[in-house]
């Protein structure tokens, strides 16, 4: 069987880079990967990670999801514009009190995380429909299912993506096109570094002191603890089975499943708001102890897996 052409956006780092390399190195050679990035000056890490697959099963092309011309140029450069699998990965984060963010900055997040996905899908969908085959994957987030304090705009962008895909999936199925949403919890990538850097340099004088304190001393502290205790690696996401098959939603971190289930357990939203309020403002000490315990358990499990591997059992 001819390899499937996979186009991935945002491959200069993190999940996109890991996915591109994982698929390009597929032992059964099922994929030809078009790994795209908006700034080709950042191709070094991907080239190094791609190794022997570079220009064989992995090609690097320029594509900015906010620039329609670059999308069209990239798709037109693919023979017969034939994309079997589109992986919408490019994304940006944004954290902080909304009083400290401009509408222009907020629009920037929506432009990339929501309209970026829409632009890409609009460009490949007609060809997929004609061929009556295709798979559209979107790297969403648990924040596409559940709002998190001080992630208001980022969460809104991922909710937008989720609503868009939930509407599209049924029509797409009629054309034998599958749509999949991958919903990771925290993943340790440059994404985290970038938002923390922005948070450190931001001006909090446009909000009240209580909110500024809540963000810098409570949220940032909790967020860092959550990333270091529960964070997955980009490779964990690249291993996700849903990428090669059609389930519509795939949460990659089972720790988050109960959290996202709260609103379904109580449609009034009271259970969800009450739980989060208590977790953040009342039982934060307990939360930190639990996070530390989880961190130790995960560390032990990792060591055990390494030991099992070293002994040659896997
Ligand atoms: N890290 C997490 O905790 C986490 C959790 C859930 C979901 N996600 C989602 O996973 C996806 C990948 O994030 P990541 O964690 O791998 O972060 P990352 O390492 O920062 O990667 C983001 C990628 O998107 C690219 N990008 C940004 N704007 C773009 C644009 N206009 N056009 C094309 N590419 C653009 C970045 O390129 P530049 O290098 O040029 O900026 C970079 O290659 C995002 O959609 C994110 O929302 C991340």
UniProtKB/TrEMBL annotation:
One GO BP annotation of this record: estrogen biosynthetic process
Entry GO CC: cytosol
List of catalytic residues: 154 (proton acceptor)
This protein's UniProt keywords: Lipid metabolism, Oxidoreductase
Gene3D superfamilies reported for this sequence: NAD(P)-binding Rossmann-like Domain
InterPro entries: 17beta_DH (IPR011348), NAD(P)-bd_dom_sf (IPR036291), SDR_fam (IPR002347)
Record-listed NADP(+) binding positions: 10-38, 64, 158
Single GO molecular function: estradiol 17-beta-dehydrogenase [NAD(P)+] activity
Xref: Pfam families: adh_short (PF00106)
Residues at which substrate binds: 141
Annotated family: Belongs to the short-chain dehydrogenases/reductases (SDR) family.
Record's protein name: Retinol dehydrogenase 8
Organism: Chrysemys picta bellii (Western painted turtle)
Upper taxonomic lineage: Eukaryota, Metazoa, Chordata, Craniata, Vertebrata
The gene coding this protein: LOC101946488
